[in-house]
Task: inverse folding
C-alpha cells in the first residue's frame, strides 16, 4: 500500500516537472507579418509558418529567447 502511494507521488511529481519545463514562448499572431526572421535564428527549428504566421512548437522550443530579440515586430512574447 505504501509503495503504491509513493509511486503515485513520483508520477505526479514527474508530470508537474514536465509541465513546468514546457516552453512559455508564444507568437502574438496579430503582430506577426510572416517575415521568417525568427525561423532563421531558432537553433532547434521550433518555429514554422502556418498561414503566413509564425507558430512555435513547444516540444522543440528550449526557451533560449533568441527569437524574441530577432522579431522587429515584437510579435514573440514570453509568459511569465
Ligand atoms: S520574426 Fe516576428 S514577424 Fe517575423 S515571422 Fe517571426 S514572429 Fe512573425
Ligand atoms: S525560444 Fe529559442 S528555441 Fe524557442 S522558438 Fe525561440 S529561438 Fe526557438
Result:
Amino acid at each position: 500500500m505504501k509503495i503504491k502511494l509513493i509511486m503515485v507521488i513520483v508520477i505526479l511529481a514527474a508530470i508537474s516537472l514536465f509541465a513546468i519545463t514546457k516552453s512559455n514562448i508564444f507568437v502574438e499572431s496579430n503582430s506577426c507579418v510572416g517575415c521568417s526572421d525568427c525561423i532563421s535564428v531558432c537553433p532547434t527549428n521550433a518555429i514554422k509558418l502556418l498561414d503566413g504566421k509564425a507558430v512555435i512548437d513547444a516540444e522543440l522550443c528550449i526557451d533560449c529567447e533568441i527569437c524574441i530579440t530577432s522579431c522587429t515586430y515584437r510579435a514573440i512574447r514570453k509568459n511569465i
Q: What stands out?
A: The chain has one domain: 24-80. The radius of gyration is 17 Å. The CA atoms of residues 6 and 42 lie 40 Å apart. The longest helix spans residues 2-21.
